[in-house]
Amino acid sequence: MSSLKLTAIGNSVGVILPKELLAKLGVTKGDSLYVVEQPDGVRLTVSDPEFEAQMAVARQLMKKWRNVLAELAK
Fold this sequence. Notes:
Layout: E1 6-9, E2 12-15, H1 19-25, E3 34-38, E4 41-45, H2 49-64, H3 66-73
Antiparallel strand pairs: 1-2, 3-4
């Protein structure tokens, strides 16, 4: 676990992420991170939770309609 300090950035307040954490997340300057609210706090993630939920539904539908999709692909 790491402790991060809030710092002034212009007229805003931000968090500086150490390069080790950036490497672990696989992100660089300009990439997007998503903050997900949870009962015990927040979670920082590189994947868009809304997109992941949509993909889960798409996977279910593709599995259910596999034969139909295979015929359409011909």
